[in-house]
Design a protein that fits this description.
Blueprint: H1 2-32, E1 37-53, E2 58-73, H2 86-89, H3 98-126, E3 128-131, H4 143-147, E4 154-158, E5 161-162, H5 166-178, E6 182-188, E7 195-201, H6 207-210, H7 214-218, H8 237-241, E8 248-252, E9 255-256, H9 260-268, E10 275-281, E11 284-290, E12 293-297, E13 300-304, E14 315-318, H10 322-349, H11 360-373, H12 375-393, H13 401-414, H14 420-450
Helix pairs in contact: 1-3, 1-11, 1-12, 3-10, 3-12, 3-13, 10-12, 11-12
Amino acid sequence: MLAILQSAVAIIVAFGVLIIVHELGHYTVARWCGVKVLRFSVGMGKIIYSRRIGPDQTEWALSVLPLGGYVKMLDAREQDLQNLSAADLAREFTRQMVWRRIAIVAAGPVANFLLAIALFFGLYLHGVPEPIPRLRTVAQQTIAYQAGLRGGELVTAVDGQPIRIWSDLRWKLLQAAVEHGSVRLDADRSAARGHMVVDLPLSSLSTKDLEGDFMGRLGLELARPKAVVGKVAPDGPAMRGGLRAGDLVMAVDGKPIADQTEFRDMVRAAPGRTLQLEVMRAGQNVLLKVTPDAMGENGHAVGLIKVELPVAPEMILADESPVHALEKAVQRTWETSVLQVKMIGKMITGEVSWKNISGPITIADYAGQSARVGAVSYVSFIAFISIILGVMNLLPIPVLDGGLLLYYSLEVLTGRPVSERFNEIAQRAGLAILMTLMIVAVFNDIARHMS
């Protein structure tokens, strides 16, 4: 119940911020262009609170349905203008030159992109604790293994662009994989093995691979900590078997152990079965026998020896100078926008499944998860959703900002506005498209949660 409440609060705050910023973009540019704004509403439907402010007595309102917002301007298509003064008539929206109308409509999505840039800038300037891009042992028969990677390498650059953190490596590879290309990885190995450069082909990745764990499909996983024993519970299997804090587990039943994850998996797979451990203690090899207790989990027995193991990978604080932080924020916003457009195009052509469309349930779940992880994760989530909102609003679908921009672009080309009849038909078609997308998104959400 608490998780549901956290998700609800997180998504309300996130969408509240995004809606306000989006509508403030429209409002601000409308005022700059001299258009009279009658109402600024957060939410849709019936107004539950409002207050009039400013020389124009603009109504600032809170409406009952938190599904969006709107800026209501003086508009001949919606209001009776017969009793207005000449000064107010000059401030009516449709009487503005087409470039002003384009600026007003485009300002909403642009505000979302600027918000994402500002949030990313703040994160990069503050510093983000991130795992370094060191590779776990690479499984044979994978693309990474065939390219020459074996594990333990620290990736330092992708196609000549330096990287310092794991998320940057994943992001660069995802962009290249969408294009079905290949990348060049620079990596540092141990001092004895030196530097290496490998070409990693991505053309064998299918679109379905991109929808899941494509990094695992490549054979690239984040390096885990060594299996160094932490706190040992009194009277537990580990204590009875002779394990002590600080022991480094080197092998189990003669099989070398690469990291704590591998050791944990072997213990869990052996409930009630005695394991022979080879550990390094104070520079000496020690052989021990430990029998994991059997513990029920989801109807199955798993092994438990009651010790603490390190879980955090090697981390750095990835901070940037103000100039580099701004440059990186702009680049990340641009690259994310381009990737979203490409994925939408692949959905239209059938290369990407429509099952990837997420609705309010999944987004709320992600919002709650990111908020529980911490402020950095939550701010990153808001920035990402802000970019998606900006891209979606620019799609040339009537009733969206992109549809209006399409109308005004046609007006620029033809010298005359689109007809009312055309506009009416297009509005109905656009609404039908949006309703269809919403139904698909909600269906996908329900299917994910049921599965």
